[in-house]
Amino acid sequence: MKETASAKAKAIAANIRKLREYRDYTQDYLAAKLAISQNAYSKIELGYSRITLERLFIISAVLEVNPADLISTETDKLINLINF
């Protein structure tokens, strides 16, 4: 069960990174929006830090997506978001 949760956390981190790159935002930009350092933000994208719901909502707002889309492990949803 712990391995599954870890894999899902890494998938969420990857979704955040992919959407950030698609929007052409830097890690510094998102870090500033979250009021954290770039290093702390990098750890979110790498899956080293646990993300709070509050941060998830802020990230989703900055990336202009629904929070549920960020936590989806269905790659088709992410591809559809990027193609719009």
TrEMBL record:
Pfam families: HTH_3. Keywords: DNA-binding. This is DNA-binding transcriptional regulator, XRE family. InterPro entries: Cro/C1-type_HTH, Lambda_DNA-bd_dom_sf. Residues 16-70 form the HTH cro/C1-type domain. It comes from the Bacteria. It comes from Daejeonella lutea. One of its GO terms (molecular function) is DNA binding.
